Amino acid sequence: MAPTSTPQTPFGRVLTAMVTPFSAAGSLDLEGAQRLAAHLVDAGNDGLIVNGTTGESPTTSDAEKTELVRAVVEAVGDRAHVVAGVGTNDTRHSIELARAAQAAGAHGLLTVTPYYNKPPQEGLYQHFTAVADATELPVMLYDIPGRSGVPINTETMVRLGEHPRIVANKDAKGDLGRASWAIATTGLAWYSGDDMLNLPLLSVGAIGFVSVVGHVVTPELRALVDAYSGGDVAKATEIHQRLLPVFTGMFRTQGVITSKAALALRGLPGGPLRLPLVGLTEPETEQLRRDLAAGGVQI
Fold it and tell me: Torsion angle of alpha carbons 185, 143, 297, 47, nearest 10°?
């Protein structure tokens, strides 16, 4: 059974985009994934995104994706929303992944803008609608033009928001003006997809975060959103400012790379990366250690 949700917070408020742990040999580490999922939920996450970009979805097979969803649901599915990334640049493939995720027990779907082939807005509308029509699961859109090459325009968001199962958007557009208009007009629950903008997006109507730094600072993110929603903006701002070194350090390079390095520093499951991603160098690891320490993270 999925955790309780409301239309205002369909997946909760704090979700971590979870890495996919691998063994030293590079195979899927399901036991490690379950341990990491339990750790993140114990730390205060309302939900976890699996098989997203931070989960190295470009380099995991469809079968591995299904196995991972099933394992994480088994570990934490009664305590947290397990949202499966099913976004590709092939609508038929995304539909197949969505149906497989539902069969594996996922509570929701994350579907990113089709990348590389640069579809027009009508193509985006039809793609997202087809994925939402394929299952009974609620859908979170993922708008990240820096990776996909194409933004989801506000007018398209409004149309998509009319679909009964498209309930939320993960915003990594980096444009507070557009976010303000979209939040005001779409009716979608808005999640920050850019950790540096977590607090600013709350200020224009976002309700929570899909975070990478949640791998190391979930309690602080929980305190930030609770303070803001409780009216203590000064406390939320203080937490935001204290976390600035963490936000900076975790994105000096690709977020999967730093997340797995940070987990290794803390003795948590993560394991190696799959090419084309590569691990941090020793100097980069020391820089990450300094960044985390400056933000109050104990290593």
Answer: 80
